Amino acid sequence: MSGDARPAVVLLSGGMDSATVLYWARAEGFAPTALSFRYGQRHSAELQAARRLAQEVNCELVEMDLDLAKFGASALTDPEIAVPEGPDDGIPATYVPARNTVFLSIALALAEARDIHDICIGVNAIDYSGYPDCRGEFISAFEKMANLATRDGVEGRPFRIHTPLIDWTKAEIIRAGVRLGVDYAMTVSCYRADSDGRACGTCEACRLRREGFETAEVEDSTRYQE
Amino acid sequence: MSGDARPAVVLLSGGMDSATVLYWARAEGFAPTALSFRYGQRHSAELQAARRLAQEVNCELVEMDLDLAKFGASALTDPEIAVPEGPDDGIPATYVPARNTVFLSIALALAEARDIHDICIGVNAIDYSGYPDCRGEFISAFEKMANLATRDGVEGRPFRIHTPLIDWTKAEIIRAGVRLGVDYAMTVSCYRADSDGRACGTCEACRLRREGFETAEVEDSTRYQE
Q1: How does residue B1 score in pLDDT terms, banded at 50, 70 and 90?
Q2: Measured between alpha carbons, how far is residue A79 from residues A70, A72, A151, A196, B14 in Å?
Q3: Nearest-CA distance A139 → chain B (Å)
């Protein structure tokens, strides 16, 4: 990484989308600072994946603790709510209330504190179209709000939210990632991954991931349980 | 509190403004759930004050830990940065990057998880005009973003952010609070309060508070150090 690369905060969950964004940011000439959350998600193997990915691209990983599980109301954080096997009608049970708003807000706080003005997030409006906080409309509204909320925003040093994957299919993400050098065996998408990060193969996230590899005609490097 | 009061999340720092909002919400017929943060602020006596205030109005207090001090860049969270004695030019050193954005986002997550659609925050654009995230423009942009970000927002159960104090002077806040029954001796505004919540009397927050009592012609009940 050259010394004058433009810094960027990259939200890194350890899943395939955010891993692809991390490599995309590097290829675009950004010097990334990755940001991950321990928010009470069931699939904490993701965090291990985030650490390995950050190490791989040689960037700092800032880990934040935030107990959103205390609020419940999502299959991802509340053990009482089952993770759905198939596609839901409308917004899935895995929706975590206001999650991307919370994550982007904290990314904004980190960015402003460190004089960084670019924030990258792997939202995608195609395959996961049920999540309201993965759409371009939401991102535009967040960016506008961010530039009214902050010292840098009001003083003419605006923040920009980058969403390179927003219009890509899962297959397009995988093809781009492979070109960029992402090792998807390191990433965890499964909502029910075991502690070693191996996937269940049957949840909605596994299904989309598997279909993505098939459509992209890329060998599925996912490590499955069994 | 009647059983059919409309629920609301009230951001409660333990300072005089948020205490006034808590009592305002109750008087408006809301059943408040208070939300406080342990975010690495120097003046943690505020949290004790928040607990006492929540007890006083008999509402639940949800306490969240979020280590914004890790990011630094504010006199409120970074011991290396001095708390200013007098008014700053422009945005004060006590500005915490994106703080209200982060707090409102987490309030939104709590609200949506509990099927609450009203959020109350004690921002004030008059006396603390240096903070960009205390202005009506910011609040409007946040509300708009929130209703694009969330399941309830996009499904026609919108969130509303209430800012009853936004155009009030400190004196007006104090007069309203006294009418509503707030005991300001329980609140902590000082940036350098001791562990018992007693105020330094000389920081910018103390100065504004003292002037507020003088202008309101209300006896200053603040407990000062020495």
Answers
A1: very low
A2: 12, 9, 40, 19, 33
A3: 8
